[in-house]
Amino acid sequence: MNMKLKTLSMALLAMLGIQSVAALEVDREVMPRVTVGGRLIATPSAGKSEGFAATDDEEHSAVDISDSSLLLRFDKRLYDGGVAGAFVGFTKPDADSDLDDDIYFHQLNAFFWNKDFEAVLGRTRLPNTLIEFPTLRDDDLLSYTHVQNLTSFAENDQYQIYGDVVSLGWHINPTLTLSGWVGTRTETDATGDKLGEFNVNSAGFGLVYAQPEELAYLKRLRRAGILIDYQDVDDVTGDDSSYSAIAGAEWNLNNDPTRNWSTAVQAIYNDGLDGATLAGPNGLRRTESWSAAGSVRLTNRPKLLTRWQAGVTAAYKDYDEANASQFSIIPSFVYRLGSGVDLVSQVAYTNLDDGLAAVTGYDRDYSIMAGLSFSFDMKFNDTIGERTSILDTEHSYIRR
Q1: What percent of the chain has pLDDT over 90?
Q2: Mind listing the pLDDT tens digit for each residue in 135-172?
Q3: Which of 10, 43, 221, 349 is the most exposed place for a label (fewest CB within 10 A)?
């Protein structure tokens, strides 16, 4: 019995010793903060493109779920200050695009930020627009509001909005940021198939003034800035380069956060490529042009909770050397049923002059859509504190 007791005691002491040694080991793996967000927007739509003759009219209708997305962000606080992490997001392309029925990774990057600097390395939004207008989707006025990708012949909007970039931003003060970037816009062949080459073909810099979201309704000037965008094009059409300049501003017409009137304007000049014509490959994007867009927005926020928003956006684009132009007008209305659940509606009308109609085959296009949108934003193990919402990386048709 004494021998058994002695053996048991020695075993217990050994276990305690092992546990004591194990307690000295530190688990170096720190769980990241995990943020999950996304949006599904579904809008049945109907419209018509009208040509030179009645026989050219083309009706179009669809249940559009494009630009729906799922977003995942993982980040950790660093030893010497700042936050670093990874961002993964995928979206549903347009039904009539070259990426039909594919999942497109529009966010796939590593990032770092602190009080003074922020950096992004990987696929994300190109810094090719400055102001966000109250349309339901980014691509509703894409040719007016974004610098176009001159290296792509594909019919999809993802190659116009996203790219692989290395960007660095310096926060001069809480509202003023100086930034620069280099990157790769997606290149395709003349049929729209993506090339296997990944050369740095874009660069830019900008200076942007932006109010924090919590002060957006209280300050007169919400956002203003200027961006320069450079593209290098080396394909079957030759070796050339192009630059674009973007300037814009958004400001409040009143300082009432419960019933806010705001307006925004943006202009883009693109010097185009030598010898480009409207009828040539990728001609509408490669021809010298300037565009302007403006909007007026009314946001109703009783008790500081957004209930509905009405907006109208108008845009004009001129291809001066080609003697051609076009304009569009888009009124929209969004009614919030609950947190992240919205009834959405929009009407769009576009008019093309004879110079563009000869290329596109129609003079006028109009469509109407109405539907439902659901969005969400959840955080797990949140020990860092929010800087921007994960949904701020997406097009925001309604002010939260």
Answers
A1: 62
A2: 999 899 999 999 999 999 888 899 999 999 999 999 99
A3: 10
The DSSP code sequence of 47-76 is EEEE-SSGGG-EEEEEEE-TT-EEEEEEEE
Say how far apart CA 161 and CA 127 lie, in whole Å: 9
User: Is-contact 180 204, C-beta < 8 A?
Assistant: yes
DSSP 287-336: S-EEEEEEEEEEEE-GGG---EEEEEEEEEEEETTTTEEEEEEEEEEEEE
Take residue 306 and report the two structure tokens written for it: 């957004």
Phi-psi region of 366 (alpha: psi -120 to 50; beta: other; left: phi over 0): beta
Tokens (6 digits) for 108: 């796939």
The C-alpha atoms of residue 153 and residue 194 are separated, in whole angstroms, by 9
Given this model, what pLDDT does residue 22 score? 47
Inter-residue long-range contacts of 391-394, CB under 8 Å, 24+ positions, other chains counted: 391/37, 391/39, 391/71, 393/71, 393/87, 393/89, 393/107, 393/124, 393/125, 394/39, 394/67, 394/69, 394/71
pLDDT on residue 217:
87
Q: What angle do CA 199, 205, 208 make, to 5 degrees?
A: 145
Q: Rounded to whole angstroms, how far apart are CA atoms 21 and 25?
A: 7
Q: In terms of Cα–Cα distance, which of 133, 135, 394, 399 is closest to 266?
A: 133
The span from the CA of 117 to the CA of 168, in Å, is 7
**How many angstroms separate the Cα of 347 from the Cα of each of 20, 136, 251, 323, 344?**
70, 10, 24, 28, 11
Q: How many CB atoms lie within 10 A of CB 170?
A: 12
CA–centroid distance for 32 within its chain: 25
